[in-house]
Amino acid sequence: MIMMLLSKFAAVFTTIFLMCSTVFAQTEEAPLELRTGAQAVIDSQISAFRTQDHAKAFSHAAPSLQKIFGSTDRFIGMVKKGYGAIYKARNWEFGRSGMQSDTLYQEVNIIGPNSKNWSALYTMKKGADGVWRIHGVQMREGNAQST
User: Fold this and answer.
1) Rounded to whole angstroms, how far apart are CA atoms 74 and 36?
2) pTM score
């Protein structure tokens, strides 16, 4: 049983690592004005987690994610369970960014609890209102390549 879980973990880790590498190989660097706007949303959400302003953090999620989770409490529960390094981030800095069609990919290097390093790949899209929203985050332990 343990070997099967370790095997699945290794497969997921490898998939995420390859995806991050592939994303930046297949995208152009995001223009500064787009990158700055998306980074402001990510920064705002991580800051909201730190201050436990859960409503603000939830507001940065894409409407499709808000619909899936249905409530701030359910969303925060998922973040705490699956993205604890982001929820309890001690520090973060932005890494590479890429743009493909209307999707911006932003790498974020995170120092989480216990000073562990994490790399998060955010998928961002602008809503009909012109505001960047977080459509997904993929994480792996260890630093990403900084810019």
Assistant:
1) 29
2) 0.81
Could you say which DSSP state residue 29 is in? P
Domain of 58, CATH number, reads: 3.10.450.50
What number is the average pLDDT over the span 106-129?
95
How many domains does one find in the chain? 1
Handedness of CA 31, 32, 37, 42 (dihedral sign): positive
**Is residue 34, in this structure, part of any structural domain at all?**
yes
Residue 49, CB-side half-sphere exposure with 13 Å CA sphere: 24
Name the residue among 76, 133, 67, 70 with its Cα closest to residue 102. 133
8 A C-beta contact, residue 63 and residue 134: no
Distances (CA, A) of 29 to 19, 34, 83, 147: 16, 10, 26, 11
Q: Is residue 147 part of a domain?
A: no
The answer to whether position 146 is within a domain reads no
Contact 62, 133 (CB under 8 A): yes
Amino acid at 100: Q
Rounded to an integer, the average pLDDT of 111-127 is: 95
Whole domain around residue 39: which residue ranges?
2-141
- Whether 37 is in a domain gets the answer yes
What are 141's two structure tokens?
């332990």
Indicate the SS3 state at residue 22: helix
